[in-house]
Amino acid sequence: MYKCNVGMEVMTRRFGTTADGEEIHLHSMWNGRVQLDVIDYGARIVRICAPDMDGSITDVTFGYDSCEDYLANRTSFGALMGRHA
Question: What is the DSSP string of 7-52?
């Protein structure tokens, strides 16, 4: 775990492997209120968890739960950078 000087914690873990053997990592960032999970395969947003109107933490994005789903979907779903970036 890495703690930023702005009160944000960042954790990185292995998420999967491409067909070429390249590891894909999931980076989770948490500021005590909102969590952002991004993989380093196209900088895809996997989930954003934020409080809803009642204060319950809810995932507010559409994303896959597994690396295999991202690898199978060739449309750059959830990617911040497309295939030509």
Answer: S-EEEEEEEEE-TTS-EEEEEEEE-SS-EEEEETTTTEEEEEEEE-
65, 44 Cβ separation under 8 angstroms: no
| pTM of the predicted model as reported, rounded to 2 decimal places | 0.80
pLDDT tens string 25-56: 999 999 988 999 999 988 899 999 999 889 89
**Lateral strand order in the sheet of 23-30:** 2-3, 9-17, 23-30, 35-39, 44-51, 57-59
Quick one: pLDDT band at residue 18, thresholds 50, 70, 90? very high
pLDDT exceeds cutoff 80 at 81: no
- CA-derived radius of gyration, the chain: 14
DSSP code for 78: T
